[in-house]
Amino acid sequence: MHIGVLGGGQLSRMMALAGYPLGLQFTVLDPSPAVCASQVAEHVQADYTDQAALDDLAQRCDVITWDFENVPAESVAYLEAKCPVYPAREALALGQDRWHEKSLFRELNIATPKFAMVDTRPDLLAALDDIGLPAVLKTRRMGYDGKGQVVLRTQEDLEPAWQQLGGQALILEQFVSFDFECSVIGVRSRKGEVAFYPIARNRHHRGVLSISAVPARLPEALSQQAQAWLQELLERFDYVGVLTLELFVRGSELLVNEMAPRVHNSGHWSQNGAVTSQFENHLRAVAGLPLGSCDARGASIMLNWIGEMPKVQAFMSIPGLHWHDYGKSARPGRKVGHANLVADDLAQLRERAQALQPLVTAEQWLHIQECLGAEV
Ligand code: AMP
Description:
This protein is α+β, with helices and mostly antiparallel strands. It contains 13 helices and 17 strands.
């Protein structure tokens, strides 16, 4: 079976790497001349709206999916007339606009931080009256990894934030002083089977994911709540594939930040720490195969490499450590790879993680300690 992927980044690359053992072949469509998936898949270099290129992709492929949430929904609609496309166009379109996404959550009684639509300066003032400070002003569209957002802590922050973001469709959100962040990843098959990965505890740095750890050490009632919300969304969209919900944990309260209708960085641990990785399960779903188990094979921590890859040598002597280099050139802020450290249980993971201390920055080490608990 031939799988087409809109987007040729690392998620697409890791999908292809997971799909070859299943006998799947891959073609990615991406406008960039050099995409890291092209080392392991055919690459059609064209704009996402290029109809001839979309025709070509549909002709070559049996099923099409995406690795990037800002693919135009109109292109997906165009492809749907020619070829099955999953996970679900409605989820893609809603996820592209923070206002529509959060409005759906509100409709489904899924708890979110307070939010309000902001198009004009008077809207911003009215929203601030309602929500109060601190707050976060975000662009409704094209925001990811903390891009297109400014935290407002005092009245003095308003003018610079408006100068930076005003003139676009915006949303103002209550700033949540969370205890920690986590995410729940679920997968739904074409037949409607649903399975959930254990919840990951996440640490972001300047809006970009730095660490994910499983188990999340989250109270059982909150895990159940997160899964129930995700299940509701999977059914609502008649979703096929992997869907992620990013959440804030504040005391005994859970608030949804956003959803990602694709495989997700906070699920990379599953490549080595779960019975079936998120990439394989996404492919099983879209290819019409039965799902694999999402169970963890112990405890795991994933460390993102941002900007450049560290030297692999020293890491290789750590038992249970797995290396994932995306084959990208170094660039500040760019996700270039990650490492997964896996152990039989949390106690052994904490022990193994000690070996990371001399190899990572002081900041990363703090994040590791935070995610694994004080005992590290
Ligand atoms: P986003 O692009 O919305 O996923 O935001 C990226 C990161 O910024 C999140 O994972 C949080 O660490 C932080 N963030 C976003 N929105 C809020 C908020 N309303 N309150 C506190 N932190 C936030």
